[in-house]
Amino acid sequence: MAALDALESAVERRREADRDENELASRIQALGADRSRLADELDNSLVKTRKLERTNREIAEKLGTAIGTIRAVLDAGEDT
Asked: What's the pTM?
């Protein structure tokens, strides 16, 4: 009887270990999916950031040109 009890205990421990292993594999798979999703989001954010920076530079150049034009017009008006 003792040998049978020991065998049953060993089988149960093995089942628990298998369940734990399957749960761990599922968690690892979920983490991998999250990592991929986060990497995609980061890539998209970097693209948007670069576009915003480029747009910001273009606007700053246009504002600089407009300010220069306005100053030239004001200076010309003061001369007359």
From this structure: 0.60
